Amino acid sequence: MAVITFDYEDIISLMGKRIPVDELIEKIPMIGASFERRDGNEISIEIFPDRPDMLSVEGLARAMRAFLGIEKGAKIYEVAEPKVKIEVDKSVNEIRPYIAGCVVKNIELDDKSIASLMDLQEKLHFSIGKDRKKMAIGVHDFDMVTPPFVYKAVKPDEISFVPLAMEEEMNLKEILEKHDKGIAYAHLLEGKEKYPVILDSHGNVLSFPPVINGALTAVKEETKNLFIDVTGTDKNAVLNALVIMASSLAERGGKLEAVFVGESVTPDMSYREMKVNVEYIHKISGMDLSPDEISEALLRMGYDVKIEDNKIKVLYPPWRVDILHPIDVVEDIIIGYGYENVNETLPSSMTFGSSINHDRIHDTMLGLGFTEVFTLTLSSKEKEFEKMSMEEKEVVEISNPISSFHSIARQSLLPSLLEILSKNRHNDLPQSIYEVGDVISDMEQKKMLAGAKIDARAGFTECKSIVEAILRNFGIKMEVEEKEHPSFISGRCASIIANGKEIGYFGELKPEVITSFELEYPVIAFEMELSSLSKDNQYN
Hints:
Blueprint: E1 2-7, H1 8-15, H2 21-27, E2 33-39, E3 42-47, H3 57-67, E4 79-88, E5 98-105, H4 111-126, E6 135-141, E7 149-154, E8 160-161, E9 170-171, H5 172-178, H6 180-185, E10 195-199, E11 205-208, E12 212-213, E13 226-232, H7 235-251, E14 255-261, E15 264-266, E16 272-277, H8 278-285, H9 291-299, E17 304-308, E18 311-316, H10 326-337, H11 358-367, E19 371-372, E20 378-379, H12 381-386, E21 408-409, H13 414-423, E22 431-441, E23 444-454, H14 460-473, E24 479-482, E25 488-498, E26 501-509, H15 511-516, E27 523-529
Parallel strand pairs: 4-7, 4-14, 19-22
Antiparallel strand pairs: 1-3, 2-3, 5-13, 5-14, 6-13, 7-10, 8-9, 10-11, 11-12, 14-15, 16-18, 17-18, 20-21, 22-23, 23-27, 24-25, 25-26, 26-27
C-alpha cells in the first residue's frame, strides 16, 4: 500500500472547511485508509490499492469533502473543447501504441503543489502503470512548446535533446546507457529497433516515454499552463491515469482543456452508470437500509443517485477506476453509511476448522532447533520459478500489484525461506527456519509446512531424519521414494509417502538455486501438506 504525506493546512484549504486536526485524523480511516503518523502539521496516511484516486492530497480532499457532508454528490469538472492535437504515427503500434493528453490552464503552483503532482505521478507509475510498463505520465510546461504534437518512433541515434536532470544533449541510446532513469527503464524498450518520442511542431522533444521528459518543458513555480501526456501498452491504464491526474489538477483550480488524439478526444470526464437492486444491497450488506439511507450513503461517497422502482441507479465518477461490479457499490454504501453504525451480530451457525494442532507443530519444530518465520503470501515469477530453476506454469496473478515483487500468489514456501536465509547470511551457521502458510499450487489453495537449514555439513541424511522426526511426533509412519525435482540435486531428493499418498518432498538444493539467493553453503529443505498431520486424516 502507498503512503502519502501532506500538510494539514493544505488539505484544509482544498476541503474548504476547517476540521480540527484530531477529528480529521479520526475520520480519514473511515473512508478506506490507514493513519500512519503525524509530525506537527505533516500527516502521513496509507492508501489502500483499490483507491488510486486518493493517491494525492487533492484526491483525498475531494473524497473527504463528500464523506463529511461539505460537498456531497458528484463533483463535476468542466472540460473545454479541444484546440490541441496529438498526431499518432503508426510507427508506435508495435512499441507503445496508446497515448492520451490533456491541457491544464491557469494553474497556480508552489513547492507543495508541485511536490504533490510529482508524487502522484510516481505513485500512479508504480500502481496503475506497473512501474511504467503499462503506462507512463509526462507533465510539461505547455508554454515552452508549440502544438500540434506528434507521437512517433525514431531510431535510437536519430534525435538528441537535453533530458531532465542533465545539461547536455544526449540521443536516445545514450540516455538508456548513461541517464539514471534510462538505465532503470531500458528493459521496457529492450529488443525494439525504434523508440517512442513526443515532439512539438518545431521538432522540440517533450518526452521520451516511458523513460524521461525533456528539460525544456520542466515544470516550475512560474508555470501557468500544463500539458499532460500518458503513453502505454494498456489502453485502460492510460485513460484511467489521465483522468486521475486531470481531476487532481482541477482540484488545484486548473482549467481542463481536452486534446484531440488522432480521431479521439481525451480525457473523458463523464460519469459512468450502474444499476443495483435494493434486495442485492440488503443481502450483501446484511442491513435493511431504506432507499433514502442508501442514497445518503452514496452521496457521501461522491456518487449521484436516482431511485427507480426497486433499483438504485448510481452515477460514479471516472476517477473511481475501482468500481467494476455492483459489489463495489455495496462496499461504498457500507462505508458511506458508517462502519460505526453497523450492528455487530454473531454467526447464525457455528463451524469448525480442521483439527491441525499448530502448537504441537511449533513445539515439534522448536525441539528440532528450528525458528518460525512469517513471510508474504504474494511473490514474483522470478523468485518462484527462475531462482528455483523451475519451469514457469499457470499462476494466480494480481491484476493491480503494489510492485513486481508481489505480483503472483506463491507456489511454494521454500523460495521465501531461502530469501530469509539470504537476508541473514551475515549471521553464524547453522541456521534452521520453518513456516506454516498458504500456497496456490496447480490452481489449488493448500496449507503447507516447510523448513530449510543452511550449514556447511547439511546433507540428505540429516534432512531425512528431520522429516521422520516430524511425522513420528504425529504418529505417522513415513516411506520414501526417489523424486526428481528441478530445485534439488538429482539423486538427493525424495517424496514423502504416508498411507500410500505423496504428502511432500525433501532433499538437498541444487548449487545454482543456492547461489541464486546469494547463499554460499549447502541447504537442505522440505515441504509437506499440513493437512497430512491433521486428525481428519487419522494421523494423531
